[in-house]
Amino acid sequence: MGFREDIQNGKFVVTAEVGPPKGTDITEMVHHVKALKGKVAALNVTDNQSAVMRVSTLAIAKVLMDLDVEPIYQMTCRDRNRLGLQSDLLGAAVLGIKNVLALTGDHTTLGDHKDAKPVFDIESVQLLQVINGLNEGHDMAGLELQGTTDFFAGAIVTPEANPFEPQFAKFEKKVKAGAKFFQTQAVYDMKKFHAFMDRASEHNVPILAGILLLKSAGMAKYLNKFVAGISVPDELIDELAPFKGADALQKGIEIAGRQIAELRDVCAGVHIMAIGAEDKVPDILAAAGL
Amino acid sequence: MIVAEPKSLEEINQMIDGYDKVLMVGCGTCTTVSLSGGEREVNLMATAVRLSRKVEGRDIEIGQQTIIRQCDWEYIDELKDVDDYQAIVSFACGAGIQGLARKFTDIPVFPGVNTSFIGFNEGYGLFSEQCKACGECILDKTGGVCPVARCAKGLLNGPCGGTNNGKCEINKDQDCAWVLIYNQLEGQGKLDKFKEILAPKDYSKAGNIRVLDLRT
Question: Which pTM was predicted?
Answer without folding.
Answer: 0.94
